[in-house]
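Exercise 3.2. Students should predict the tertiary structure of the chain below and write it as structure tokens, then compare their answer with the key that follows.

Predict this chain's 3D structure.
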Amino acid sequence: MTRTLLAFTAAIFAWSTAVCAADASRARDLGIPFDGTPGEWNAITDVAGVTVGFHTQIGESEAGAAIRTGVTAILPRGVDSALKPVPAGIFSLNGNGELTGSHWVEESGLMEGPVMITNTHSVGVVHDAVIAWRVRHGAADAEGYFWSLPVVGETWDGWLNDINGFHVTPEHVFSALDSAGSGPVVEGNVGGGTGMICHQFKGGTGTASRVIEIEDTIYSLGVLVQANYGDRDQLRIAGVPVGKHLTKERAYEDPSEETGSIIIVIATDAPLLPHQLKRVARRATLGLGRMGSYASDGSGDIFLAFSTANPQLNQLDTATVRALGNGQLSPLFLATVQATEEAIVNALVAAETMTGYQGHRAVAIDHDALREVLKQYGRQAAPE
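Answer key:
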């Protein structure tokens, strides 16, 4: 009998979902106004080749503890991600968090394999499982070695999840990776975002995209967030201080308990060099700031940007690459700010109320109440 079957006596509601035409509302469905032009799916998967997969766990352990957790997988080049690196850059706004493999990304300017996101205490098992997945899916190097430094980010879900029960297993990681696909991306209580809290509302996974034109060429930029940060009083949506109006039913009342974080992953098909991608990653800070984050001491705010252009790049051989000039990057900077803001709001809007570990409860943002506050400030648009 497998470890997974031995771990639980109660049935776990677990599923693997890459993408689907989600029934849940999104921010634009509520008439929340945003600047910029989104892509077809308004998701990170609008960047051609990028795929996303999830494994979500909602259930109870043998001991009766609440399991509210999961794994998110972002594959920059789909099934080719195990073999073909992407240029990448990283920025840490506040470092009370983890993104494994970041030192080599910083040093080499390239990222190999997928980007994984999970809960804080499951980083190790996800890291090891990604190596096993890459061995299964990628050929050895010229000397016959398999070498990997997986990129795994985390945010803490211990308010709703039995985080020290270590419920994420390698099989769950394989499930998220193998289910990854293109198209619309599900949001809210899914994957690594399952047990997350954002501005003391139920938070989770969110995504958005922008299409921009630079010198007669159309590029896509997409963002995916795992949102688990923020004080209620500071929450702003579309420039409106909604957190000061929607004050009831906070996940926790004591601001000193704000120990959340956010992982932001930015993808683009624009041809950018690693130092330019680091500049793009920094701009996620401004989108986060629009939401009311001040990057508290207990927050891990870590951002990664990669480009799917220049597929001929590798760690060993000479390659001729194409790159935009620094003077052409401003539209990408603005797109990053816009898509980051919308992705976080999408995570809030899609999330559903959840009761979890020790009876702790995180209430989803009330759509009708949110619309009413926006209307008071003249920021309610017609739903799309």
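Discussion points: The chain has seven helices and 15 strands. The CA atoms of residues 94 and 295 lie 6 Å apart.
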